[in-house]
From TrEMBL:
Residues 64-235 form the Penicillin-binding protein dimerisation domain. Residues 639-685 have a biased composition (Low complexity). The keyword Transmembrane helix applies. This is Penicillin-binding protein 2. One of its GO terms (biological process) is regulation of cell shape. It is found in: Cell membrane; Membrane. The chain crosses the membrane at residues 21-41. It comes from the Bacteria. Residues 630-685 are annotated as: Disordered. The keyword Cell membrane applies. It comes from Edaphosphingomonas laterariae.
Length: 685
């Protein structure tokens, strides 16, 4: 059945409209409610957030790098301070039209092309957040010229701040270190915005690095009102920074500078230690770098010069240089002999060589010393005596005594690293080489050769412990607790005998008689040492010739060493001197120790002696370094046309010709790797 058309009444239409209106109204109400809730959330709950965002658009917050804490010596003399300076940096993220901006900066700051190239290279390698230094320590006129054009130079950030300054320069390079701009790796560790603040620097080496938490301080802040384009309208307020803490060292700044100068054109280290407290009064390592150059941003040319120097000025020889200690260990060996029951009166006949199996081990005195007891063996440094008696007690007893005196130890000092060398014994060789200890190993070790390696700090500690009779520990920070140490587990009479024999080395018929202190009432005791740096075979010795002295390349010359203390009666200061490839301990190292200890009693006399020496060396440290830099910069320039023009001025003294040899540090580090059976001492001690 077919349905007819549906009839919609007015009432039905009204009902349908009402339902639709209710649905739409409900939807509108819900949307309105959501919008109102969102507006309420933004205006109430999120009020602080958007208020801060709006404030950030209007106000620019700039961190003020904190002033770094000073480093001062034991008497309060500054060793690392801050100086006000003006600087200009570039923020890569904000840099626009790079070539135009760089060209304008070069013109305003009068930058040389080398510096402009350095800036371009740094910009290529820099992360966007890391500021690139353009110029530091500029005068106010150039700073103002950039500041007034800052709106025209997007990304350029002129600032007034502080720069690190080291009054003693290279003399404290390895000890104090230097500061530099934080790297991207530094920033990734904790995302501290201070690390990317222009002008802020962190410790990179030495005490500047290890004592960073003490020296850093807390940053300040400056609020400035800016336009939408970033132009400063006015400064609102400033919160001052909190400077870092002052760090007092145990070091004597005057002695440190003197020792560094006294090393002269040599490569080596001088360490002086207080026998009463363990305070390290001096830790000089030369040649060194000028920390002011690194803190200011060292140039590529200067850094290349340092890396190319065969004397390794970037290596801290005091802590990281390892050397065969040579005859400086003989007092320790003598103490081991005394403990084992060998009396000072027992003697041997030295003919100049000692037969062991089918090999001969030579004494430094070819003709021999004749009858030698323990006292004479020490002050004449007779090798044959120690060859003979060391075999009776064995290497383990000797190694125990050496470790008791500080050799092979790593000391609790605020330094990044220290190499502790080797004090070999039977267990060490078995563990290292999977082979048994041999008698010839003992013969070599007993004169500080073979596998024996130590650093200059360890030698100074050994000297201080023999002098004081206590387990002294070195101290570098004046605030750290004193560790004067318990008495050594050594018979006091044995120590007194060794100290007396070491006095004879300098004040009696010993090997360092020319190094007596030029003081009426103070005497120095000590022990010289000469350590060869390469294996000398019997065939080479049979052929004759020169092995480790004058006439051979610098890198093959013997190291010169000396340990000592003063005064003899009541020791107050102990010292160790190591001169790389210095040939003879008595000729080179002992005189340096004499002059350094003289400075502690009579600075004027010591300085007068040094001034005369520096005239012959071509000037003081700064003068010589400046000349080396100039020569390095001119190395690729064509030679003068005439011989007269090529000749140096008659008044200029050049460094020793041996300075052109291979790296000292590498030779020193490899010295202990020579075959133990072949290390034979040479003519001097």
């Amino acid at each position: 059945m077919k349905r007819g058309p549906r009839i919609v009444t007015e009432q039905q239409q009204l009902l349908t409209f009402t339902r639709r209106a209710m649905v739409l109204g409900g939807a509108q109400f819900a949307m309105g409610t959501v919008l109102a809730g969102r507006m309420a959330w933004l205006s109430v709950a999120e009020n602080e957030r958007y208020k801060l965002m709006a404030e950030d658009n209007r106000v620019q917050l700039i961190l003020i790098p904190p002033r770094r804490g000073w480093l001062i010596d034991r008497q309060g003399k500054p060793m690392a301070i801050n100086r006000t300076d003006f600087r200009v940096d570039i923020i890569p993220d904000q840099l626009q039209d790079e070539e135009r901006v760089l060209a304008e900066l070069g013109r305003l700051l009068a930058l040389p092309e080398e510096e402009m190239q350095r800036i371009r290279d740094d910009l290529k390698d820099a992360a966007g957040f890391r500021p690139v230094p353009v110029a530091e320590k500029i005068d106010y006129e150039r700073f103002a010229a950039v500041s007034v054009r800052q709106s025209e130079l997007p990304g350029v950030a002129p600032a007034r701040g502080y720069t690190r300054y080291y009054p003693a320069g290279a003399a404290v390079g390895h000890l104090i270190g230097y500061v530099g701009v934080a790297s991207a790796k530094d920033y990734e560790k904790n995302k501290d915005p201070l690390l990317i603040t222009p002008g802020f620097k962190i410790g990179k080496e030495g005490l500047e690095k290890t004592m960073e938490p003490v020296l850093r301080g807390k940053p300040g802040a400056k609020r400035s009102e800016v336009t939408a384009r970033g132009k400063i309208v006015r400064d609102l307020d400033t919160r001052s920074d909190e400077p870092g803490g002052t760090l007092r060292l145990s070091v004597d700044a005057g002695l440190q500078a003197y020792a560094a100068r006294r090393i002269g054109t040599n490569s080596g280290s001088v360490v002086v230690m207080d026998c009463h407290t363990g305070d390290l009064l001096c830790m000089a390592s030369m040649p060194s770098y000028d920390p002011n150059s690194f803190s200011d941003g060292i140039g590529h040319s200067e850094y290349a010069m340092l890396r190319a120097n065969d004397h390794l000025p970037l290596l801290n020889k005091t802590l990281q240089g390892l050397y065969p200690p040579g005859s400086t260990v003989k007092p320790a060996v003598a103490l081991a002999l005394l403990r084992a029951g060998i009396t000072p009166e027992q003697s041997v006949v030295c003919t100049g060589r000692y037969r062991l199996g089918n090999r001969y081990f030579h004494c430094h005195k070819r003709g021999g010393h004749g009858h030698v007891d323990m006292r004479r063996a020490i002050h004449q440094s007779c090798d044959v005596y120690f060859y003979h008696y060391s075999q009776q007690i064995g290497i383990d007893a000797i190694a125990t005594m050496m470790r008791n005196l500080g050799l092979g130890a790593e000391f609790p000092l605020p330094v990044a690293s220290q190499r502790y060398g080797t004090v070999p014994d039977t267990a060490w060789k078995q563990r290292r080489f999977k082979t048994a200890w041999a008698t010839y190993d003992t013969v070599n070790a007993t004169i500080g050769q073979g596998y024996m390696l130590s650093n200059p700090l360890q030698l100074a500690v050994m000297s201080a412990r023999i002098a004081s009779g206590r387990m002294l520990m070195p101290r570098l920070l004046a605030r750290s607790p004193l560790k004067a140490g318990e008495p050594l587990d050594i018979d006091p009479e044995h120590l007194e005998f060794i100290r007396s024999a070491m006095s004879d080395v300098v004040n009696g018929p010993g090997t360092a008689g020319r190094s007596r202190l030029p003081l009426a009432d103070v005497q120095m005791a000590g022990k010289t040492g000469t350590a060869q740096v390469r294996n000398i075979t019997a065939a080479e010795r049979a052929r004759g010739g020169k092995f480790g002295g004058e006439g051979v390349p610098w890198k093959y010359r013997d190291h010169a060493l000396f340990i000592g203390f003063a005064p003899v009666e009541n020791p107050r200061y102990a010292a160790a001197v190591v001169i790389e490839h210095g040939i003879g301990g008595s000729a080179v190292a002992a005189p340096i120790a004499r002059d350094v200890l003289t400075y502690l009693y009579d600075p004027a006399k010591a300085l007068a002696t040094l001034d005369k020496m520096e005239e012959g060396w071509g000037g003081n440290i700064e003068t010589r370094m400046a000349r080396e830099a100039a020569e390095w910069g001119n190395r690729d320039k064509p030679a003068p046309a005439s011989a007269e023009a090529a000749a140096p001025p008659a008044t200029t003294a050049s460094a020793p010709a041996a300075n052109a040899a291979a790296p000292a540090g590498r030779a020193a580090a490899s010295a202990g790797n020579a075959a133990a059976a072949g290390n034979e001492p040479l003519e001097t001690d």
